């Protein structure tokens, strides 16, 4: 590709950002607003890429977004900050496939997440 960054579309810039993040073969990737300001088809492409990374490359993702449609498409369980800063845990997502990550760091984080969830639910 012979284009400067300023010549790329928003969707292409997002894909380049994902490609750059994957250079070191990470096991966990943080996506900060990965679909913001993208048209729906391009947003869907980015979401499908995140799912492919999970399913084909065993890469866990942490997605920060304000777009609840994206959250529900990507996840089966999520945490959000509700009114007055209260952390709320939800199980109502519509993930393409249920998935449990086998990487020990992610499994450890998931266990911490579950313990925190139980503490918050008791408050």
Task: Note the gap between the termini.
Answer: 54 Å
User: Stretches where pLDDT falls below 50 for ≥5 residues?
Assistant: 93-101
Q: Count of DSSP helices?
A: 4
Q: What is the CA-based Rg, rounded? A: 16 Å
Got a strand count?
4
Read across the widest sheet, the strand sequence of neighbours is: 1-2
Biggest sheet, open or closed, and with what strands and sense?
Answer: 2 strands, parallel
Helix % is: 40-55%
Shape: globular
Structural class assignment: alpha+beta
Question: Could you explain the architecture of this structure?
Answer:
Helix content is 46%, strand content 15%. The protein is built from 4 helices and 4 strands. With 123 residues, it is α+β, with helices and mostly antiparallel strands. α2 (40-57) links the parallel β1 (28-32) and β2. It has helices at residues 10-21, 40-57, 68-74, 104-122; strands spanning 28-32, 60-64, 78-81, 87-90.
């Amino acid at each position: 590709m012979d284009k400067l960054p300023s010549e790329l579309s928003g969707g292409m810039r997002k894909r380049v950002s994902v490609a750059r993040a994957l250079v070191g073969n990470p096991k966990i990737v943080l996506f900060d607003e990965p679909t913001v300001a993208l048209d729906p088809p391009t947003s869907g492409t980015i979401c499908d890429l995140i799912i492919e990374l999970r399913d084909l490359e065993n890469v866990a993702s942490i997605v920060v977004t304000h777009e609840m449609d994206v959250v529900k498409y990507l996840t089966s369980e999520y945490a959000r900050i509700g009114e007055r800063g209260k952390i709320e845990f939800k199980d109502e997502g519509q993930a393409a496939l249920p998935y449990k990550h086998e990487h020990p760091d992610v499994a450890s984080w998931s266990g911490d997440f579950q313990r925190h969830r139980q503490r918050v639910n008791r408050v």
